[in-house]
TrEMBL record:
Annotated site, Deprotonates C-terminal active site Cys, chain positions: 24
Record: active site: 30, 33
GO molecular function, a single term: protein-disulfide reductase activity
Name of this protein: Thioredoxin
Cystine connections: 30-33
Alphabetical list of SUPFAM superfamilies matching this protein: Thioredoxin-like
Secreted listed as a keyword: no
UniProt family annotation: Belongs to the thioredoxin family.
Entries under Pfam families matching the protein: Thioredoxin (PF00085)
Annotated site residue numbers, Contributes to redox potential value: 31-32
Keywords: Disulfide bond, Electron transport, Redox-active center, Transport
Organism listed in the record: Halomonas lysinitropha
Amino acid sequence: MVINVSTQDFEQKVLGSDKPVLVDFWAPWCGPCKMVAPILEALEQDMGDQLSVAKVNVDDNQQLAGRFGLRSIPTLMLFDTGALVAQQAGALTRAQLDGWLNRHMNLDTAG
């Protein structure tokens, strides 16, 4: 299940996670964000044992958006053991997202 993360629980749910976390910084008014949402849901269903997917509403969590210097949404950030591993701005197709994750993680996508 995709989890919603706020400024208050970001440290615990993302940085403290025992598996990699893909964070989607989004807003309800953002068209490309709406396009990415079902792709992220499917990704979490397919790879939830290897990767957590989290969503941060930038309208409700402006402090987090500022902390990471976001300039556009959607922005995807991949965290592993509390460290930012990769960042991607803009909407991606599932194939593009899979390729991006494979470049930055050691995931078993054959499963």
